[in-house]
Amino acid sequence: MALKSAGILLFRTSGGSTEVLLVHPGGPFFARKDRGYWTVPKGEYVAAEEPLAAAIRELYEETGLQLPGNTTFYPLGTITQKGGKSVQVWAAKGAPDTWAFKSNFFNLEWPPKSGKICSFPEVDKAAWFSLDKARLYINERQSALIDRLTEILKE
Asked: Where are the alpha helices (DSSP H) in the chain?
């Protein structure tokens, strides 16, 4: 069975322009990778978990951001990543200029076959991108989410 993830594409508008919050995966495999590797804050969930609740949880776990209870969520649909994982995403308007960025950590044997277990942040950076710049930096399979958000904002 293919894995399922859920995420939030947080956006803000200022002076007529829109920006989205993207995160960069942490750990040694992504340390020197930039364009095409940023992503929507997202994570896997189990069948018993409500996907939107999982998306909200993952936003907090990967960035430290908590959305207010009255947040409006705009469904952006589902995309399929290269590995076959489906990712269901919602957009939400939020504009924290600064926050105490924090990410949860994972353990990995590093270097491989060394027997040494190291701890790495799941996400090592979060940044606001203009829509045009976001299209350059986001994972290519997730770029459709930027287009879907653009359509919603036109309505």
From this structure: 51-63, 131-137, 143-154
pTM assigned to the model: 0.93
Mean pLDDT (the chain) is 93
CA 18 – CA 77 distance, rounded (Å): 20
Q: Return d(Cα 110, Cα 113) in angstroms, integer.
A: 7
| Domain ranges (residues) in the chain | 4-154
Cβ 58 vs Cβ 7: under 8 Å: yes
Lookup: tokens for 60: 């907090």
CATH number of 4-154, picked from 3.30.310.50, 3.90.79.10, 3.40.50.880, 2.60.40.1250: 3.90.79.10
* pLDDT tens-digit series, residues 130-144: 999 999 999 999 999
Q: Are 26 and 16 in contact (CB under 8 A)?
A: no
